[in-house]
Amino acid sequence: MKCPDCQEDLTQVPTSHGPGLDVCSSGHGLWLDVGEVNFFVEDYTSLKRAIGNTGGVAVTTETLCPRCGTHMESATVAHTSFLSCDSCRGWWLPHGSLTRLNETYQGAAVPIEVGETELYAQAAARHHTRNNTGHQPGLKTPHSHAQGLWFWVLFFGLALGIGGIIFAAGIDKTLRTTLWSRTPDHPFLYLAAGTLGGFWLFAEGWLLLQRKHLIESIPTSTIRSLALGLVEISGQAQPEKQVLSSPFRGVPCVFYTYAVEERVGSGKHIRWETITKGTSEQPFFVSDTTGRVLVAPLHAELILQDECIVRNDWLEALPPTTIDGLNRLGISTERWLGNKTLRCRESFILPDAQVYVLGTAQERLGATERVENAARLYIGSNRGHEFIISDRSEKDLRSHLRWHMWAYGAGGLALTALCLIVFVKYYLRTIS
In this structure, are residues 235 and 256 in contact, taking their beta carbons and an 8 Å threshold? Predict the structure, then answer.
């Protein structure tokens, strides 16, 4: 984009309040894309209300929009003039306009301090560096990026090739110098299953490590500063409409998950078989000091602390509330001879409980660009991104994942090594 006044390329300057700003290095002004005024004016709701009043009468000008090239409109609000584009909804603020707007519309929960002088100084410095070096400071050129990519491709390719040669040589030597000392039997199948199970546990530990790194790499956003894409928020859970009741104990909540298991078999072959499981599908709000946003919990990975288990046996029957919940799910507690032995699990998020959400911020259907971000967006699942809902704090969640990661990883390696040692000792012998 180019500055409407001097036609020089605008320079993007990072900020601490949200997205980077496109700033004229000569100090003529700065550009705000649609929705970005929310990040840089404290009481942007009052500002938008003022624009809709008589003080915000717009006049078409000859100045072209740096984003889409259409003619922009001039408006004056609180003795501050700026240009807006009716097509892409962006704003061009001349030098000093952002400061005056922020001084006029104050009083929000989260104070915002915008130093325009520093913004223009950074833009001038970045523009000077770009002209001298040919690229933005701190960014790799395509050539250097390609060089780094080829280095790692060659490095890992060479390491994989050497590892494959060593592994093939070891297998060949083992086959040449060993014989079966006994034929495969049932214990052999158990050892093979244990080896594969160990690899699976190690893989699960690796996935948990990646999830922990993802959580650590994404900064927690305030709800007011949400942007489209993968986001992380923390706040209090609130119902969207009415408070729900957990299916088996009737606990008031904003979200619940449940599972019903039946004990089947007899003797050594007793096992618990899942009959049904599910979650509540009603969205709920998460609020912090800057606003609230809707969370659609469908397809989320749930990491909840408390799990209530209700079961019956020959000494104790299921409570009436649990029986009512099973009936609503269409599950009978009786069989042709006696009663079923059932185990009912449920976890829930209570109203006003602190929750952590990692998911994809998406636009609601029918939402307009002029409304606040929290009302325009919701957080839900995306096939390409993680979606986690937890009633733990981020610190507790990272600790939870770390312990499970070590348990799965170390346990998987130990199980695999033990099975291989037993296999070599009892099923193979070395040729003398």
Answer: no
Q: How far apart are the first and last CA of the chain?
A: 78
Q: Do the beta carbons of residue 386 and residue 254 sit within 8 Å?
A: no
Alpha-carbon distance of 345 to 247, in angstroms, equals 10
Share of the chain above pLDDT 70, in %: 80
Say how far apart CA 102 and CA 92 lie, in whole Å: 15
- Identify the band that residue 242 occupies on the pLDDT scale cut at 50, 70 and 90: confident
What's the token pair of residue 387?
């979606």
* Average pLDDT score over the chain: 80
- Whether 248 and 258 have beta carbons less than 8 Å apart is answered as yes
Cα–Cα distances in angstroms (integers) from residue 291 to residues 138, 226, 308, 377, in the given order: 34, 10, 32, 12
| Site of tokens 């994809």 | 360
Hey, which residues does 80 pair with through a beta bridge? Answer: 77
Q: pLDDT per residue over 356-379, tens digit each? A: 999 998 887 655 554 555 567 889
Largest distance between two CA atoms of the chain: 100
Using 50, 70 and 90 to split pLDDT, how confident is the model at 144?
A: very low
Write out the two tokens for 292. 């609230």
Per-residue pLDDT tens over the stretch 2-60: 888 888 888 888 776 556 788 898 888 888 887 677 777 777 777 777 776 644 456 78
Residue by residue, what is the 3-state secondary structure of the chain?
CECCCCCCECEEECCCCCCCEEECCCCCEEEECCCCHHHHCCCHHHHHHHHHCHHHCCEEEEEECCCCCCEEEEEEECCEEEEECCCCCCEEEECCHHHHHHHHCCCCCCCCCCCHHHHHHHHHHHHHHHHHHCCCCCCCCHHHHHHHHHHHHHHHHHHHHHHHHHHHHHHHHHHHHEEECCCCCHHHHHHHHHHHHHHHHHHHHHHHHHHHHHHHHCCCCCHHHCCCEEEEEEEEEEECCCCEECCCCCCEECEEEEEEEEEECCHHHCEEEEEEEEECCCCEEEEECCEEEEECCCCCEEECCCCEEEECCCCCCCCHHHHHHHHHCCCCCECCCCECCEEEEEEEECCCCEEEEEEEEEECCCCCCCCCHHHHEEEECCCCCCCEEECCCHHHHHHHHHHHHHHHHHHHHHHHHHHHHHHHHHHEEECC
